[in-house]
Amino acid sequence: MSKTLRLCIALSILPQMLIIYNLAKNPEWVEHYYSEGLYLKISNSLRFIYGWIPFSIGDLLYITTISFGLWWGFKNLKQLFKTPLKSILNLLSVVSVLYFVFHLFWGLNYYRLPLHKKQDINPIYTTAQLFRTTEQIIEKSNKLHFKLVQDSRKVVHVPYSFGELTALSTKGYEKSIFKYTNPSQKYSLLSTPLTYMGFSGYLNPFTNEAQVNLHNPKNAMPLTLVHEQAHQVGYAAENEANFIGFLVCSNHTDDYFKYSGYTFALRYCLSEVYKRDQKKYKIYKERINSGILIDFEKRTALWTQYNNPMEPLFKSIYSSFLKANAQDKGIKSYSYVVGLIVGHFETQL
């Protein structure tokens, strides 16, 4: 590749950034022409190409790229210092190409019309509305829990294999307004690193594979699968993917999926209640079946054993990535699902 061509590719990142900046101001355009147009064709094609393969092509792509980059850098370390401008040009060329492919294949979904506007949901809620929603979720969670184990003190154990879970999660989308075709859900080959980083899964934007951490608590797996599918459908914002995960699971025909959805919402709502009224939090906690609380404790214990000094750094980096992609609250945006959940329950009254 000639120096002139590499320079053109490297400098192309500037007009790309300008285009993204302007698209971010026009969510209706992104929604109509990209998220509900071009993206659906691209994502369906990617899942059709890679979905049938039993292992993660995206993970292999990352592993190969990182390994090659480290090998190449070590091998050419002296040359990098001798010709720094050439090295910077090469690096910028690669970054420019990745920036383009990322946004074309998936990243523009960060700038689509907010889900609460499409669903006509008010995400701003009062404390009274939060309490009302939490009470409904506690009641529903308790009923589902008792239905599954017939004992308020027992813990629910999801009996399905990963293959059965993926089939059921896809079935859940058939009843929803979010159309999902060409399933592509896989255990991540990077599950152990993901666990130490504190992530239960992720979507590979270059292959559109939903990657699930195999160490994820089994009772949380249904929600994780459906959450990553929401990303595949084109909802990039984490709070929106969480909300779609709740909707699909809570409306599922399978009670284990319903349990996963409602207990997911319960944890987030309880967390918000605790921030606003700790006395009320204690009252609500006493109303919850002890088996559900034990389940929560086990999930927390599973993640706690992987705590390490690097996890906050990884999450800080990811938070910065989210902020750079129109999610102002960074990793805290996950918890903003409560506004959507409360708003949804309020529309049902």
Question: What's the arrangement of strands in the largest beta sheet?
Answer: 1-3-2
Q: Given the C-alpha coordinates, what overall shape results? A: globular
Query: What is the CA-based Rg, rounded?
Result: 22 Å
> Which regions are unreliable across 5 or more consecutive residues at pLDDT < 50?
none
Please give the number of β-strands: 3
Average pLDDT rating:
90
Structural class: mainly alpha
Beta-strand share of residues: under 5%
Give the count of helical stretches.
17
Helix residue percentage: 55-70%
Largest sheet: 3 strands, mixed
Order of helices and strands: HHHHHHHHHEHEEHHHHHHH
Q: Give the N-terminus to C-terminus distance in angstroms.
A: 63 Å
Give a verbal description of the structure.
By secondary structure, the protein is mainly alpha-helical. It has 17 helices and 3 strands. It has helices at residues 3-11, 13-23, 27-50, 57-75, 77-82, 84-105, 115-118, 127-149, 162-174, 191-197, 221-233, 238-250, 255-276, 278-287, 290-304, 311-324, 337-347; strands at residues 185-187, 201-204, 209-212. A hairpin with a 4-residue loop joins strand 2 (201-204) and strand 3 (209-212).
Q: Secondary-structure map with pairings?
A:
Blueprint: H1 3-11, H2 13-23, H3 27-50, H4 57-75, H5 77-82, H6 84-105, H7 115-118, H8 127-149, H9 162-174, E1 185-187, H10 191-197, E2 201-204, E3 209-212, H11 221-233, H12 238-250, H13 255-276, H14 278-287, H15 290-304, H16 311-324, H17 337-347
Parallel strand pairs: 1-3
Antiparallel strand pairs: 2-3
Gist?
This protein is mostly helical. It has helices at 3-11, 13-23, 27-50, 57-75, 77-82, 84-105, 115-118, 127-149, 162-174, 191-197, 221-233, 238-250, 255-276, 278-287, 290-304, 311-324, 337-347, and strands at 185-187, 201-204, 209-212.
